[in-house]
Write a structure and sequence with these properties.
6 helices, mainly alpha, globular, two-stranded antiparallel ribbon
């Protein structure tokens, strides 16, 4: 079963256009469909309290948030604005379900890298992944 982004059918069609644009003008290779990256980020943000994925799955979703950030910066106006709105909604939910620990929780699992997005400095405040990170 594939997850779908939380958006209207019309917005879903625009996400498909975004992927086509990025493939034609920006990416080298096929890249990840924009709707898949958005769906993974939204799924993480909206289900973090019940999230049963492991730390690798969590980090994978953070990588997709990176991809969304890069895509937003490269899309033309209205497309960029739509994607920014959808991502910002998920960001707000993610912030409410996490706390900033300066990246300490994830430092055990990531190679140090300068200029990571703010999402790498946050960890869940409830749920199974929070319990796991407390035990590490």
């Amino acid at each position: 079963m594939s997850i779908q982004p939380r958006c209207s059918e019309a917005e879903l069609a625009v996400l498909e256009e975004m992927t086509a644009y990025m493939r034609a003008h920006v990416w080298v290779g096929s890249g990840h469909p924009v709707k898949r990256s958005l769906a993974l980020w939204q799924n993480l943000a909206y289900t973090l309290g019940e999230y049963t994925g492991g730390i690798d799955d969590y980090i994978y979703s953070l990588y997709h948030r990176d991809a969304l950030e890069a895509t937003i910066k490269r899309l033309p106006g209205p497309h960029s604005e739509l994607l920014q709105r959808l991502v910002t909604e998920a960001d707000e939910t993610f912030r409410k379900a996490t706390r900033d620990d300066g990246g300490r929780s994830l430092s055990e699992f990531l190679i140090p890298e300068a200029n990571r997005g703010w999402w790498y400095s946050r960890r869940p405040i409830i749920g199974p992944l929070n319990t796991y990170l407390d035990a590490v």
